[in-house]
Structure formats: structure tokens, C-alpha cells
Amino acid sequence: MTTSPDTPRALTARAHAHSLLSLGLPLIGGQLAQYSVHLTDMVMIGWYDVTALAALTIAGTIFFVFFIVGSGFGWAVMPIVASAAGTDDDRQVRRVTRMGIWLSILFGAAAMPFMIFSEPLLLALGQAPEVAEQAGLYLAVASIGMIPNLVIVVLRSYLSALELTRIVLIVTIAMALLNVALNYALIFGNWGAPELGIVGAAIASIVLQVVGVIWLVLYAALKTPQYALFRNALRPDWEGFRRVFSLGWPIGLTNLAEVGLFSASSIMMGWVGTKELAAHGIALQIASATFMIHIGLSQAVTVRAGRAYGRRDEAGLRAGAGVGLALSMAAAFFTIVAFLTIPELLIGLFIAPDDPARPEILAIGALLLAAAAVFQFVDAAQVMALGMLRGVQDTRVPMVIAVIAYWGVGLPASLALGFTLGFGAVGIWAGLVVGLAVAGVLFSWRFWRRSSRIALPGVPA
Length: 461
Known about the structure:
mainly alpha, disordered C terminus
């Protein structure tokens, strides 16, 4: 029987889609703007000095590893606040957000010494002295920005959970634009500023992170006074602390497992050849940009799932999850079309027209984007299912699944297909597809199994 557009089921689906898009589009825009900050740093430092670019590549990776682990506490705030807001528990909203900020500050402080004294470690790992020196300088300065960077994640999660996502988009875009201006002044010595090179990029990052924190703190205090978010900010709340910690550390390690797999793929690609590594880096940048769409939708699903979870609304949870997954699959379809029809155009944006290696890199890159097209659906499925699981506050089992899928399956598959079977660069990316597919299937199975039990208070999933 055909469902009329006016039936309750059709209206429910439209309502879920409208809610997810209203919530998710600003988050997608915010993710793309945040990604542009990293891309801008790479491009502008690349214009300044090749050695500085190499140093920033290494330093940026180290900074990001600490950040992605520490951001687990900020991400944990989102589903707990969404669930508490769904039941009008204002006190719980305040408690977990405040303790999320505490945990982020503590983690950032613990990470700083490793970055400040990173140069000897980089030298021990075989990096060229000039690269290790510049990378060490960058990290020593940029480490100051770790704490405000992590606090921004907490405040973004808090505001997103309350469905105040437009400010998240506005602040992130403003930070991206400020980053360009500060880089232009401090890297190159323009507008009367000193020419500081890679250190200038680090200072620019600190300034925009502090500005971002101040802006979000003021907005949260003025826009959501009912939560009295910063009242008794220095008073410990050990119950809230334990809750955020227990939910957050598995999120951080799950993030690290996935990021680590793609970092390992870069190392393996270097074993294949220089041109393959260049093509891999470009294709990965393009795929990462499109992945921001699914990250934004995943965060929106986390919020909506968290609210349904707080109300013990099984039907609403499952319906919203299905609509979110459908939207993500639709976005993946258009990405696949682009990757298969205009790969040379996309890859060519990153290569100088007169570069003698351009034809070979374009050819390799086109093959890698074809492989990326294959994993669009599975990558979308795994990140959406992960967002759903976070919404129902299930993070420890997904962490185990992530380690098994990415490192127990994906990494061996890349090694086998890329080297044992001799498929080279394409084989490495095919291995990524296998790992992501396993993660997508297991995450999805876990969510649908868990969601069928949330209507039973006191019964563990």
C-alpha cells in the first residue's frame, strides 16, 4: 500500500528530517569551517617555507593526537546534556558541563609537558634536526592553546545538545577568518607585525582559541541563564566528574583508533612511493572534507538520540536514527558521483599546473578517489551508528569494536592487499574499506540491539 504524504508516518519522517537538518546543517558548516583552519595553516606555511611545512605536518599530527583523545570528554557532554534537557533536569545539565570543562583542563595540562619538550623525542624518532627544531618550537607555543581548544569542544557540545547550533557555526566561521588574518600578519610579518614563521602560526592558533572560548562562554551565560552554568565553577562534583570521565575516555580512544588507522595508511603509502604518498595525501584531504558532512549529521543524531533516550522514547529514537542514516546515505551518494566523475579536477586543485609529476599524481589520485567512493557508504554508516550509540551513552563496547575493526581487521587487510597481494596504493585503501565496513556493521548491530531496550527502565542494554 502506498503511504500518503499526509499520513502520520510520513509526517513523522518529515519532522525528523526537518529537526535533524535544522540541527545538523550548522554543525556541518562548523565542521567544514574548523577543517578550513587546519587547511589554511598548511597552505600559508607552505607558501612561507618548505621545511616549516614539514615541521607543521609532524607537529600538527602530534597536537591532533592529544586533542582527539582529550576531546572525548567534551563529546561525552553532548549526549548527557541532551538526555538531561529531554527530562528538564537543569541541575544535571550544569553538573556534567562543568565537570566536562574540569576534565578538559586537567587533560590539557597533563598533555602540555609532552608537547613543550617534544624536540628530543622527534630527534630520537629520526627526524631531521631542522624539522625537529621547528616542530618543537611550534608545539611548545601551541601547547598553551590545548586547554582553550578542549574547552571549546565542551561548550560546543553543550550548546549543540541544547540545539543552539547557529552560534557554533558563527563562532567557528569567525575563528577561521581570524586565523587567516593572524597568519598573514604573524607568519609573514605583515601589517607591522614581526615575521615569526611557524611560531607565528602557533600564536595565531592560541589567539583564536582564546577568542573562541570567551565568545562561547559569554553566549552560554547570556543565552542560557536558566542553567547557571558557571555558578560554583570551582566546586568539585565527583559524581558528575565520574560520569563524564567514564563516558568520555572510551570516546577519546575510539577517535584515536580511527585516526591512527588513517595515519598508519600514510606510513604504508610512503613504503609504496613518493608520488603515491603525495596522491594519497591529496585524496585524503578531499575525503576528509566530505567526511565533515557525516560528522555534523552524526552530532545532530547524537543530540536527538540523547533526548529520546532521556524520555525512554524507543520509537522516536529508532525513527530519528533511520532518518539520520538516510540523510547521510544521500550525502554519500552525491560524494560518490563527484569522486567518480571529476577526480582529476579535484586532485588537480592541489598540484601546480607545471609540476612534472602532475600527470602521474592525477592518475594515482583518481584511482584512490575511486576507492574512496567505495567506502563512502560504509564510512557514513559507521560514523552515524557511532553517533547514535553515543546518544544512548554507550561508549565502551564501541571502543572495543573500533579497535578490532580498525586495527584487527583494517590494518592487516591494508597490509595484505597493498603488499602481500601486490595491489599497492589501491590495495591499502581497499583495506581501509574493509575495516570501515566491519565497524559500520558492528556499530549498527550494537545500536539497533541497544535501542530496542531503552523503554525498560533499570534493564541494562
